[in-house]
Structure formats: structure tokens, C-alpha cells
Request: fold
Amino acid sequence: MLMDALVKPSAAPGLALERVEKPVPGPRDVLIRILKTAICGTDLHIYNWDAWSQEHIKPPLVIGHEFVGRIEEIGSEVKHFRLGQTVSGEGHIICGQCRNCRAGRGQWCNDHYSVGVSRPGAFAEYLVIPASNCIPIADNIDIEVVSFFDALGNAVHTALSFDAAGEDVLITGAGPIGMMAAAIVRHVGARHVVITDLSDYRLDLAKKLGATRTVNVTREDLAEVARGLKMKEGFDIGLEMSGAVSALEQMLAAMRNGGEIALLGLFARKPELDMSQIILKGLTLRGIYGRRMYETWYKMASMVQSGLDLRPLITHRFKYQDFEQAFSVMNTGNSGKIILEWSEKA
Reply:
């Protein structure tokens, strides 16, 4: 049986809408009928066929890893799930045997596969994943928001790395994950939430998500902004989302002594850091990868249920057949999360 899917057909820019074989679940898998997917920055890299994609992607490949759907078929050995149940899924398929996996730190598994990157993805009418990766979704959570829970998980993992309650937080990079991080730290009680970027469009959107002050660094000086907010010593917590060396340098200079920084953005250029600044300030730097499996999934569901409103982040919706238009919009940078609709019935 065939299904529609968005495929990276060859080592060149672009995607193709193709008819491919519908996946068949194994005994420990579930088959998910996809309802909605969200386009991630990784998908855009693959679409544009940049240097990262050329190194990591092996066409032909069905891409996509942010999704929500309903279970249509259950493997013979699967328990605790039911047909028709609304689910999302953790996109890292881990080995389960290495030291980190066995210690409950699967996000650091060295031998993992990634949905839509190194195994068939979710930009299709159906997806098969191991039942152990399947995440049940409560009925009182908006499924459009669930469609980008994978990305939200990155934001939650980063934003909750340090205790932000009552603290002043600096976020560099107002992409969707940076904007979600602003919403999260406000939700948990941060005082000032300052976010920097080069795009006025994204900074304006960040205000709707909870940023208390936005800074376009092409026009404003971050140190002046901090002084204007009556900060005596600098920011308590930094969340680096941009992958820009200049942004990291600004963050290091803006932190108070003893400040804490979580690093999520991947740098296209290797940073040349002033280590004396890190050492003499006593800064803590923590690298973040993916989501904590599976604690982050519980955290983000609970926050959405308790009032974390991420719906303003959704700026565009397209039918999956109009994917070219969706990726064109995303390439402009003037968007939040873009949803692809895969089913007429939600």
C-alpha cells in the first residue's frame, strides 16, 4: 500500500511529494496516522541542502520529526496504548544498552537514530516508531501545539536547566525555540526576560510569547539595556539559542559573576572564547542536546496544561501539498511555527 510523503529525493536543494510504501509496524512498534506536523530548522537545512545536510543526510529519505497523530495499528507485543489514541513521539531512537541509556540519560546515547534524519520521518501520512518512543497526549492539550512538542522539548530542557524563578534571564536568538524559552521562563517566574535578535519580526513575536524586553542588536547596546532595567550586576541566567559567535560573546560580557549559561545553538563558526572571562566570573556553561528522555515530555505537557500559551507562535498553516510555499515562507525568516496539515479530520 502506498502513501503520500515529503521526500528528499537526491543530493540537491528541494523536496518532492512522492508516493512511497506505507510502513509496517513490527511487534514492538506503533503505526501512527499523522494529523499535523511542524517544520523545524533542521527540515529547512535539509530543504536547502546546506553543508550540515550534505554531511548528515543520505537521500532518498522521508524527512520531518515534529508531529501529532493517532494510533492506527499496534504491534503484537505493545501494551499501554490503544487504537485511536492521540500521540506524539520522541524522535531519538536510542540503543538502550550504553551507559547513558541504562542510567536514564538516553539523550546522550552515542548510537541513536533520528526520525527524519537517519530513519524515515513524519512528513508522511503514516509513521512507524517504537512504542517506547510514543508519547500519549491528554485530551485537554491543543494538538496544533503538540505538533511541535519535539521543538518545545528543546526549549524546556534548556530553559529549565537552571532555576529561573525570580531571576533575570538573557536569551540570545529569537527563533521559535528562543521564543518558547522566553514563554517558559516567564511561566516559571523569571523577572526580566530579555531576548536579542537581528529580526524585528521575530522580536515582535517574542513579545507576545512573554519577553519583557526585546533587543535588536543592530540598533541597541545590550549593556545599556541592562542598565536601563536597573540591573546592578548583570544577568543571572543566559540561554544561548542563536549559534552566533557574536551573540555568545555579548552574553558572556552581560552575565553577573556566578551566572549560569545553557547552550543549545549550534555554531557554524568555531567560537574563540576569552576563557579568563569565564573563569574569573565563575560562570557555569552547560551544553544542551535534545530533550531529557522522558522527563522533559512530562514537564512540557504539565506547563501547557497549567497555562503556558504557545498558540501565538503559530503564524502559518498549509496543506502538506503546498509544502513549497511553506518552506518559501520559512526561508524568509518572517514566521514562527509553520504547521502542515495531513488530515482533514482532527
The chain has two domains: 2-147+309-341, 154-287. The chain has a mean pLDDT of 96.
